[in-house]
Write a structure and sequence with these properties.
alpha+beta; Alpha-D-Glucose-1,6-Bisphosphate, Chain A, domain 4; ten-stranded mixed sheet; four-stranded antiparallel sheet; START_lipid-bd_dom; Bet v1-like protein
């Protein structure tokens, strides 16, 4: 689907980073294969003028039951990442510019005596059923001040490509991050090796749990979206007038879903959720039946 237009303060930067992710994941030109671990093919790429390499992980989820958008949603939402990323500590969406674009804060765990790292960044998604991209990179923003006890890292470039292939979904993850501060060389090398393995972790989560509710259509303004894996609740804070339509996974919700909405009315047909007649500030909660 077309990327929603936005005049937000980070719009040009976010679209530049999305184009960069599409270029980096377009083929393997310039990437050096290092090894295959846990089914993930690992690559690295030197960046001119930087001592920090790009790292990449490629993995094929050999299951034709899922779409690229569904897998990319697993890769994107913090509620899922809390399960598949053992280094994840916490995350918050500080502002949603559009349904597919947001400002976020994320904190990661690090082993003692290394201080935890956090990142202030933006996320821009370009989702279609068969091909989906996610771009993430650091930005400076007053809504994401520095946090005591954390060292602010610089997420130079990071993103996902999920693409339908003959035997399933190709998952590609690329990242270049400056963790800043004082870090033992051995720990830095370990991080650089482990980061691209996230491609396999996303596949494992999807195969085990399915996917959180995925947006199919909307005519509303998004204020916040969050997913709680343990409770299986997907919460939307919306505004404006109109409707939303979501698809849910029978693997995630084997007994179906229940919908609570503060305005409008909801309907569930098969695996499709529709909330109509939304009017003004509205909270929609999708949970297990």
């Amino acid at each position: 689907m077309p990327i929603l237009e936005s005049t937000n303060r980070h719009a040009d930067f976010n679209r530049k980073k999305l184009a960069e992710i599409k270029d980096l994941t377009g083929d393997l030109a310039g990437w050096e294969f290092s090894q295959e671990k846990d089914g993930v093919k690992l690559y690295s790429k030197q960046v001119e003028g930087s001592s920090i390499p790009l790292v990449r992980g490629d993995y094929i989820l050999k299951n034709t039951d899922f779409t690229a958008q569904q897998v990319a949603t697993v890769a994107t939402l913090p509620g899922c990442r809390a399960i598949w990323d053992e280094k994840f500590h916490s995350a918050e969406v500080r502002e949603m510019f559009t349904r597919w674009e947001s400002l976020f804060w994320v904190r990661t765990n690090t082993p003692w005596p290394v201080s935890n790292r956090d990142v202030s960044g933006c996320n821009l998604r370009d989702f279609t059923t068969d091909l989906s991209y996610v771009a993430m990179a650091s930005v400076q923003d007053d809504l994401v001040p520095e946090v005591s006890g954390c060292v602010r890292g610089n997420l130079i470039t990071s993103g996902w490509k999920c693409e339908k292939v003959e035997d399933g979904i190709l998952i590609v993850y690329v990242s270049q991050i400056d963790l800043a501060g004082s870090i033992p060389t051995s720990f830095l090398r370990s991080v650089q090796m482990q980061m691209p393995l996230c491609a396999g972790k996303v596949a494992e989560y999807t195969a085990a749990y399915g996917f959180p509710p995925v947006a199919l259509d909307s005519s509303c303004v998004y204020k916040l979206e969050s997913f709680d894996h343990a409770k299986r609740t997907h919460t939307l804070q919306l505004d404006g007038q109109g409707h939303i339509q979501y698809q849910f996974s029978s693997k995630m919700y084997p007994n179906g879903v229940q919908i609570k909405t503060s305005t409008g009315s909801s309907q569930v047909e098969g695996n499709i959720i529709t909330v109509s007649d939304i009017n003004g500030p509205t909270t929609v909660v999708i949970s297990k039946a």
